[in-house]
Every structure is written in C-alpha cells, then in structure tokens.
Task: inverse folding
C-alpha cells in the first residue's frame, strides 16, 4: 500500500473512532488559554471529588439516593434540594460538563421549568444556597448568571449587580427572549439548549477578573470582578431530574 492510500485509510479510521465515541467527538469550540492537565471531577465511576449536601439531611447523608452514578452518568433525581460540592476550592480554570434533562419535576417546582445549575466561587457555610456565582441551567434560562447570598458581578453592560444576603439576583444571558416558568419551556427567541433529552455542553472560563459562560459552543454571558473571586464548585438538585457526565476542570497556567 502506497503512503498516500495509507494516510487516507488512517484518516477514515480516525473519523470512525470519533463518530463512535461521544467523549472524543464532543470537543470544545472555544479558545482555552494555556492550561495544566485536566482534573477529572467526574469520570462516570464515583463521586470521590465531591461531598453531598441536602437541605433536610445535612452533609454526606443521602439515604434516598438523590445522587446516583449509573451507567457512567450522574443521575440527580431532583426530589430534594441540595447539591454535590467539590472538596477543594478552585481559582482560574476552564470547566466543562455535559447535561441533559430527565422527566420529573417535584415539590414546590412541580410543573415548573426544569431547574438546576453550577454554582462556583463558593464561600461560607454549606446551605441552600451558599454565597456564590451561578451558571444557571434552566429550561429557557440556561446561561443566566445568578448572584446568590451577597455575591456580586459586573455585567457586560457595566452595571454591577449585588445580591442581598439570603437571596439572589440574575443577569439574563445574551439574546434571551420572554420566559414562562412551565415544564418544557423553550425560549422562542434565543434558545441555546438542544431539544429535550439531548446532551448539552456547558463551559465556564474564569480567568483573573473575567468570567465567561458558554452553552453548546456559544458565548451566552460574561462579566467581570466576581465576588467571591474563588471557591468550591457545586452541581444542584433543584426540583428537576437531570443528568451530568464528563465533568472536567483544567487549571489555567
């Protein structure tokens, strides 16, 4: 076999491998600054990098299995308010994760838009919800910023938003249309999620004073001078069934 034909067959084999392996095929489309080796926060086998907190049970008590690893995926039932939270804090990093919605909505959020989120730069006590910035994951609102329990951020428009203690304030994602808090809602103007049941890629870049949030390769929100500026990271259970996979964090150099 000549060199040219061997090269063609090699490329065909590579494309076939990528097509058959979502973990390889689902690559980022954003520029990532120079970074260190990935910290695989969730590899599909265990939650060793995390603690569990539930509003009614406290720390590391999950008798009803709100958080379950099954078939390489983290299944969050949503039946109780709480989260998994990293055991260590982080600062200056690129974070990527994939999520998709399940079916159920529960308790005070029954019948409402499915809701979850990634809270980061977490400081202070474990509670629902701690002092932090949130990458909102919600039907019709994925990509919004939420400042929680005293946190603050300056949006791209130059306005600084500070949440009251014990409460939250948001900055809508770019191009967001009118919303309705009903299960299955999709933004009629600027939807960034894929259809229900499909996997979505969410990416977070925190570098110095800058914070950027991406959904499926699209920049959907950015801000500056977040306070807190560093801390732990959590993934919510907030009244809706949701699945996460392939959670990786790349410390920036």
Result:
């Amino acid at each position: 076999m000549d060199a040219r034909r061997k090269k063609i067959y090699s490329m065909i084999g590579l494309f076939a491998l990528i097509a058959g392996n979502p973990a390889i095929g689902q690559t980022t489309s954003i520029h990532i600054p120079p970074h260190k080796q990935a910290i695989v926060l969730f590899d599909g086998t265990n939650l060793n990098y995390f603690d569990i907190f539930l509003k009614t049970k406290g720390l590391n008590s999950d008798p009803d299995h709100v958080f379950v690893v099954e078939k390489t995926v983290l299944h969050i039932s949503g039946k109780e308010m709480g989260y998994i939270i990293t055991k260590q804090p982080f600062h200056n990093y690129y974070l990527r994760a994939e999520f998709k919605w399940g079916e159920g909505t529960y308790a005070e959020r029954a019948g409402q838009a499915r809701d979850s989120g990634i809270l980061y730069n977490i400081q202070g006590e474990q509670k629902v919800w701690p002092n932090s910035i949130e990458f909102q994951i919600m039907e019709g609102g994925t990509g919004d910023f939420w400042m929680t329990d005293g946190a603050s951020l300056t949006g791209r428009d130059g306005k600084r938003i500070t949440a009251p203690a014990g409460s939250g304030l948001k900055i809508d994602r770019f191009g967001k249309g009118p919303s309705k808090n009903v299960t299955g809602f999709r933004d009629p103007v600027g939807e960034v999620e894929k259809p229900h049941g499909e996997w979505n890629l969410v990416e977070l870049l925190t570098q110095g004073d800058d914070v950027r949030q991406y959904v499926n390769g699209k920049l959907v929100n950015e801000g500056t001078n977040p306070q807190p500026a560093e801390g732990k990271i959590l993934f919510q259970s907030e009244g809706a069934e949701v699945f996460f996979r392939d959670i990786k964090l790349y410390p920036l150099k």
Summary: The radius of gyration is 19 Å. The chain has two helices and 18 strands. Residues 1-29 form one domain.
